[in-house]
Design brief:
2 domains, 6 strands, 45% helix, BRCT_dom_sf, CellCycle_DNARepair_Reg, BRCT domain-containing protein, four-stranded parallel beta sheet, BRCT_dom, elongated
């Protein structure tokens, strides 16, 4: 009899595709305790993704108790097969993390699709994005100045560039005379 699950009090819920009926035997054979129902002593609820999403009664009870870690069947398998003979860290097996990551991926996909649709509409209609009140670089030759890169936009109230251009023009005219 091993002691891999010495501090583990497990419970299981849901329909497992393989070896689900052996969970209690494996936990007990490795030094842990098993309960057929969720109790305050339970530390880990082993369940399926479908059962978690359906929020079945054992899952709701485990969520209410808050200290119970709701994990996948993979956590149990990986912990039993681990060479260190210790339970694996539950971080990547927690179902609330797995479901949360799935939701984030869906939101990102939707946002990407929306932005792609908007770009396609803009391209189709020939619309370009131009901010109101913007003027082109005041340098008539399109050369870069100290404040602007060549061909960049300047703010409407930004008169410093124009003043520099006027100063340069005036100073060149006066030096030639």
């Amino acid at each position: 009899m091993g002691k891999t699950f010495q501090k583990i009090h497990a419970c299981s819920a849901g329909t497992f595709p393989k070896d689900g009926n052996k969970i209690s035997q494996w936990v007990r054979a490795n030094g842990g305790e098993y309960s057929p129902t969720v109790t305050p002593q339970v530390t880990h609820l082993i369940t399926t993704l479908e059962a978690y999403k359906k929020n079945i009664k054992p899952v709701r009870e485990a969520k209410e108790l808050k200290h119970i870690k709701i994990v996948t069947f993979d956590w149990l398998e990986d912990s039993l097969l681990d060479k260190g003979r210790k339970p694996r860290r539950v971080t990547k097996y927690l179902l609330n993390t797995i479901v949360g990551n799935e939701e984030k991926k869906q939101q990102q996909q939707q946002a990407t699709k929306k932005s792609a649709d908007a770009k396609a509409r803009a391209k189709k209609t020939g619309a370009t994005k131009r901010l109101p009140g913007r003027i082109k670089n005041p340098d008539p030759f399109g050369k870069a100045t100290a404040r602007f890169k060549a061909g960049t936009a300047a703010g409407k109230g930004d008169t410093l560039g124009a003043m520099v251009l006027v100063y340069i023009t005036v100073s060149t005219l006066t030096s030639k005379s």
